[in-house]
UniProtKB/TrEMBL annotation, chain A:
The lineage of its organism: Eukaryota, Viridiplantae, Streptophyta, Embryophyta, Tracheophyta. ATP binds at K74. It catalyses: L-threonyl-[protein] + ATP = O-phospho-L-threonyl-[protein] + ADP + H(+); L-seryl-[protein] + ATP = O-phospho-L-seryl-[protein] + ADP + H(+); [DNA-directed RNA polymerase] + ATP = phospho-[DNA-directed RNA polymerase] + ADP + H(+). The keyword tRNA processing does not apply. It holds the Pfam family Pkinase. One of its GO terms (molecular function) is cyclin-dependent protein serine/threonine kinase activity. This is Cyclin-dependent kinase E-1.
TrEMBL record, chain B:
This is Cyclin-H1-1. It comes from the Eukaryota. Residues 311-320 have a biased composition (Basic residues). It comes from Durio zibethinus (Durian). SMART domains: CYCLIN. GO terms for cellular component: nucleus. Residues 294-327 are annotated as: Disordered.
Length: 491, 327
């Protein structure tokens, strides 16, 4: 399903949706069990599912923002007695502090007080690298054009450089987390998404296994596979290298079979796949290798030198002397200390030669190459908001009430299953249900931002939102930071 | 996040003294209005986390008993100060890292920029802030464990958790001055070209400054000044004791090296003002607290004789246990 919003400007939804929420709140009927905030959206279907929860596609109903699409990420409720999901809280906390053209934008947070779950609303990006790569591999059977590969990579690095310079490590970069905007002002712009595992580096970082999460091992850096205790931003650069190769060949570079026996098993096959292509790591090239637990213990004889010749260039069909190969091999450097950083990569020669990277990665401006019509991320229309199949398939656009009603039904239906005491009969109950929390981007220095979205404040809630509209920056301003195209063309 | 310059902390949570006064006034006024309207000020948090006012206190009762008197702004301040100290006691009882205490304290202070202590019981909010800080700093402690440790009902913490996040506007990354103190001391080592002996004095300086920061954090100064300035004020006070370096010379060197637009006189003015906050800090006397608690109880509609006795007993108990913790 395509969410067509050609008349809309992407990236400025905050303002008007804020007004919509405020209006909703003031007119809310207290006896309704429907989640208040859902009335502003038409739910189109499910677009993603992971260990964290589900992602839904929805369209804003308000006339000022008609057709604008939003991805709503619903976090699974955490263990009973554990309160609000720590993953959700951490993702929100990081996203609140960051703002960059190549990082996904958090537009809104909705709260379902009934089960303490959080719903994060993002600007919707129609494509992701997973679908783009798959489309080329399975449908069009030709490589992604060079301009697109380079532009995607450049923007990915640009976003990552921003994160790393703000001391954030993403820790879970993979094609499905790299989104690309569809039609609109930001068409073809890369957005790094899914900050559920992201961390600030100064904080002591616990191994992923302790967070009880499962992440794909294909993009995992060798130091982590060998049991390194400390994460550095270099782990993200390794993943970028893997993604770069995958954009070139349309196949995952290191497609190891995942060992799943214990909570955090040693991933022998994954390491073997890496060694086969890059050659065996040596202490000479990677001195700190000797300190890594799994290397040291050598339980499964990984020190045994099986592979000599690095065959990376032939694997990715690049000349060993090409700038593209040079950059790739620097990203896939074994020693994390020597691995190229995002900032260095952005300065690499690869980005200074034709075709130069551009802002719209999907439509090369001057190459006259055929534009590939990528499939958008699949939308499962048979899923309702609770992740179960709904009886009534949701319908687009005009039948908003039906959708909301359907979802409301699902919501009220779960009261029985929620493992909390049933609240006593309401006394002077404030209109409850789901409350919206609309973010001012940087607004409210003394702007009377009292408990936003709190029921008692409902009629006041409109003020800060209006205020913040004035402060909002023009979304079209984000062009800065691109390589100086004119200048380098002359070179 | 390391970059304070682009943080929500800098953009949204540093106020002018006027703004701060306005905020306290607004919360106080709102609670007073509520008291007029409903005869009680306390918001009830239901098991599902939604807020509601309890039923108005029956009118016929109101004829016999005088209307409860609301807390004034100074009394609210005392109440916050009292529980900020309690918050520290709880954190040290659990041997939490200093960072958690600092984060929880900032959460607590910010929460009561949004609400009056008459609206939400500071004891519950204090515990919820500690719980939230643990979650954010990845030092997870279950609510049950936290509640048990201080014999409080942990369900309260869970009920309040979301409201705390909301009131903090989900701005959960906060900057305490402790790290800035470390940073400045490292810088001083270089600035002084310190040798081993002097390094030891600098360690003493750092330790004293840390304790100065502890004092500063209990005032309103964290709402008014960035953490770097709070740290410098603490270091300056510490330096008066240890006399390690010419502080003004050091301040000048920071300004020139960092190319900041501050003038030295502006910076010194800020540091003086932070010192003033510390010197006028007042901890409520036992008598103050008794009076305030009595008023608060009537605001919350806990007027029944038996009920208040029971509560009084409980309160004494918790006092005792926290005193024991201290000793």
């Amino acid at each position: 399903m395509r969410c067509n919003n050609s008349t809309e400007t992407m990236g400025d939804g905050n303002n008007t949706s804020g007004r919509g929420i405020a209006a909703n709140n003031t007119t809310s009927s207290s006896n309704s069990e429907k989640p208040e905030w859902l009335h502003q959206y038409n739910l189109l279907g499910k677009i993603g599912e992971g260990t964290y929860g589900l992602v839904f596609l929805a369209r804003i109903k308000s006339p000022t923002n008609r057709g604008k699409c939003i991805a709503i990420k619903k976090f699974k409720q955490s263990k009973d007695g554990d309160g609000v999901s720590p993953t959700a809280i951490r993702e929100i906390m990081l996203l609140r502090e960051i703002s960059h053209e190549n990082v996904v934008k958090l537009v809104n947070v909705h709260i379902n007080h009934a089960d303490m779950s959080l719903y994060l609303a993002f600007d919707y990006a129609e494509y992701d690298l997973y679908e783009i790569i798959r489309h080329h591999r399975d449908k069009v059977t030709h490589a992604i054009n060079q301009y697109t590969v380079k532009s995607l990579l450049w923007q990915l690095l640009n976003g990552l450089n921003y994160l790393h310079s703000n001391w954030i490590i993403h820790r879970d970069l993979k094609p499905s987390n790299i989104l690309v905007m569809g039609d609109g002002d930001e068409q073809g712009v890369v957005k790094i998404a899914d900050f559920g595992l992201a961390r600030i580096y100064q904080a002591p970082l616990k191994p992923l296994s302790e967070n009880g999460v499962v992440v794909t091992i294909w993009y995992r850096a060798p130091e982590l596979l060998l049991g390194a205790k400390h994460y550095t931003s270099a782990v993200d650069m390794w993943a970028v290298g893997c993604i770069f190769a995958e954009l070139l060949t349309l196949k995952p570079l290191f497609q190891g079979a995942e060992a799943k026996s214990t909570p955090n098993p040693f991933q022998l096959d994954q390491l073997d796949k890496i060694f086969k292509i890059l050659g065996h790591p040596t202490l000479e090239k990677w001195p700190t290798l000797v300190n890594l637990p799994h290397w040291q213990s050598d339980m499964q004889h990984i020190q045994a030198h099986k592979y000599d010749n690095a065959g990376l260039h032939s694997f990715v069909h690049l000349s060993a002397k090409s700038p593209a190969f040079d950059l790739l091999s620097k990203m896939l450097e074994y020693d994390p200390q020597k691995r190229i950083t995002a900032a260095q990569a952005l300065e690499h020669e690869y980005f200074r030669i034709e075709p130069l990277p551009g802002r719209n990665a999907l439509v090369p401006s001057q190459h006259g190459e055929k534009i590939v019509n990528y499939p958008t991320r699949p939308v499962d229309q048979n899923t309702d908001f609770e992740g179960t199949t709904s009886i009534q398939p949701s319908q687009p656009v005009s039948s908003g009430n039906a959708v909301a009603g359907n979802m409301g039904g699902a919501h009220s239906g779960r009261n029985g299953s929620v493992n909390r005491p049933v609240p006593p009969p309401p006394m002077q109950r404030m209109p409850q249900g789901m409350m919206a929390y609309n973010f001012p981007s940087q607004a409210g220095v003394g702007g009377g931002m009292n408990p936003g979205g709190m029921p008692m404040q409902r009629n006041l809630a409109a003020q800060p939102h209006q205020q913040q509209q004035l402060r909002r920056k023009d979304p079209g301003m984000g062009m800065t930071g691109y390589p100086p195209q004119q200048k380098s063309r002359r070179l | 996040m390391a970059d304070f310059q682009t943080s929500t902390h800098k953009a949204k949570w540093i106020f002018s003294p006027q703004e701060l006064v306005e905020k306290y006034k607004a919360a106080n006024q709102r609670a007073i209005q509520t008291l007029d309207k409903y005869g009680t000020t306390q918001m009830e948090v239901d098991a599902d986390g939604s807020l509601s006012y309890p039923e108005s206190i029956a009118r016929d009762n109101a004829d016999k008993h005088p209307r409860p008197k609301p807390l004034n702004i100074e009394e609210e301040q005392f109440m916050r100060v009292f529980y900020e100290n309690k918050l520290r006691e709880v954190c040290s009882a659990f041997y939490f890292p200093n960072k958690i205490q600092a984060t929880a304290l900032i959460y607590f202070k910010r929460f009561y920029l949004q609400w009056s202590v008459m609206e939400h019981q500071p004891k519950h909010i204090m515990l919820t802030c500690v719980y939230a800080a643990c979650k954010i700093e990845e030092n997870h402690v279950s609510a049950e464990e936290l509640g048990k440790g201080i014999s409080q009902d942990h369900q309260m913490i869970l009920n309040y958790e979301m409201i705390v996040y909301q009131s903090l506007e989900f701005d959960l990354i906060v900057y305490a001055p402790y790290r800035s103190v470390e940073g400045f001391v490292n810088d001083m080592e270089e600035y002084c070209g310190a040798k081993d002996e002097e390094n030891l004095i600098l360690k003493d300086l750092q330790e004293t400054a840390r304790m100065e920061v502890d004092k500063i954090m209990l005032t309103d100064a964290p709402h008014l000044f960035p953490p770097g300035q709070l740290a410098l004020a603490a270091l300056r006070s510490a330096n008066e004791k240890h006399r390690v370096l010419n502080f003004e010379g050091y301040l000048k060197s920071i300004l020139t090296r960092q190319n900041l637009e501050h003038t030295i006189s502006q910076l010194i003015e800020s540091l003086n003002s932070i010192d003033t906050w510390v010197s006028k800090y007042k901890f409520p006397t036992e008598k103050d607290m008794k009076h305030i608690n009595r008023k608060l109880k009537s605001c919350w509609g806990h007027s029944s004789h038996d009920d208040s006795k029971k509560r009084e007993k409980k309160r004494h108990k918790s006092h005792k246990s926290s005193n024991e913790i201290q000793n």
